[in-house]
Structures are given as structure tokens and as C-alpha cells.
Amino acid sequence: MDVAQAFxxxxxxxxxxxxxxxxLPADVGTNCAALASHFPELGLCFFETAACLAYTEADLPQAxxxxxxxWHLHLPLDLPWDLPGDQxxxxxxxxxxxxxxxxxGLAPWAYVLHPPKDAEHLRRDAPEQLRCLALALKDxxxxxxxxxxxxxxxxxxxxxxxxxxxxxxxxxxDLGHMLEHGQEDFLDLPELWAHARMLHLNAPxxxxxxxxxxxxxxxxxxxxxxxRMLTAFAPGGxxxxxxxxxxxxxxxxxxxxxxxxxxxGREEDTA
Length: 271
Description:
By secondary structure, this protein is an alpha/beta fold. It has a single domain (about 5-270), classed as Alpha-Beta Barrel (TIM Barrel), CATH 3.20.20.150. It is about 40% helix and about 15% strand. The protein has ten helices and ten strands. The chain has helices at about 5, 30-35, 50-55, 90-100, 125-140, 155-165, 175-180, 190-195, 220-230, 245-270, and strands at about 15-20, 40-45, 70-75, 110-115, 145-150, 170-175, 195-200, 205, 210-215, 240. An eight-stranded parallel barrel has the order 1-2-3-4-5-6-7-10. Strands 8-9 form a two-stranded antiparallel sheet. Helix 4 (about 90-100) crosses helix 5 and helix 5 (about 125-140) runs parallel beside helix 6. It is globular, with a radius of gyration of 18 Å. The protein starts with a helix and ends with a helix.
């Protein structure tokens, strides 16, 4: 089943639907080759800094550039933000630039960034770290609007919001993180939807805290938040089904296609 088959009538949604590059128990190339026949966009999951910096052509074969998909890059979860003094942002920038160079032939349109760790406890430092990083990357050709700050935990996106607006950074809203950490009010941040360029869709896994579950496990409150997000999300953005097993990924594809069809039908009824 591919995206077009899943949505059928009334047709494709106004956003690109993407899958992560780590769904099958296989390497990046095998995952991408398999998923490219189902999704029009793939997110390269570069979750670990050292391992991904060590990637060679065996890990990222040239054949990836022939796949008929759009690409984005999810940056590592362990970026060196916490180096002493002011060394963190330059080191993070160098890491991002090195990883971007590895996939330059794929021309990723966006870079998803986990903000400085413990932003909740670094209210003064985290915004300045983000500002320094964004400006350093801008000087090297990565435009601010393509750097997508993701909500992770606590009040991180709220704390960083002045910098996001000041520099015109993008945002990646993660539904699962929002529900797990009580961040639903982030949807009311001023000018949020002018910055939101990507949604990560998953449900919190009640049996395995911190893990992702299929969208079908969302409760009524979670489905209401999902509805708000999809309705407000600007056409042309990317919706990532951030699930890491084939069953959960394709179950979620079926769920979101039905959910969108229902939402579209309700809008037509009230027009």
C-alpha cells in the first residue's frame, strides 16, 4: 500500500507524507529503497553523532539519489551542546555541516533539530545557544527556515520561541511529545503556523514510556489535538509518520488517511 492508494478518494492531502529511514531491521539503503515505493518523502534518521559521522558509501549508497523521493535529515539526538564555555554551538554546527555534506547529493530540504538538552533548566543559555548555532549555519549556507526546532520535553519550544521568531527558524511539531509532556498549549504560541513546516505523528506508548505507538492508539483528546494540527498545518509542509516498525507505520498510514477523509468531509458539510 502506498500513499495514493491509502488516501484514494477524495485524493491526496495538501502536504507531503513521509516515513523515517529506520523501519525495517536493515541498513539505511535497504530501508530507503523499500520505503520509496510507498512514500513520496523519506527522513534520514541520523540519530547518533559518532556512528553517522562514520558513514561511508556502503551505508549511504549513491543509488539513493535515484529514488523518486524528497529528503529531509533528522539530526542526531546527542549533539555536543554541553561542551564547556561557548564551545557547544560551534561544535554542533560543525557536526551538522559534516553530516549535511554526506548527503549533499540528496539535497535535503530541511534539518530537524532537537534543541539544547535540559532547555527547561537553561532558560538563559538555551536561547543563546540556539541563536549562535542558527547564525553559524546561516553563514555556511543552511537557511534558518530549513532548520526545524522540534518540541521534545518540558517547556523547551516556549523557552526558545523568541529566537525562533527573531531568526525565522522552522518548527517540527511532534504530537507524541506534545501529549506525553503536556505541551498542548504550544499550539497557541504566536505565529506558530507560520513557522511549522513539519509534523511528527505518533502516539505515546503507554506500555513503554518514551517510545512511539501507532496513531490508532490515540485517545479522544489525542485525536482532537491531531485534528487541530492537521487543520492548521500549511499546505506544502511534511507530515512524518514517525513509527519504527512496518506494522505500526502502515497501520498509522491507514489511520491518518481515514482521519483526514473524515475531517475533510466534516469541513465540506459545514461549508
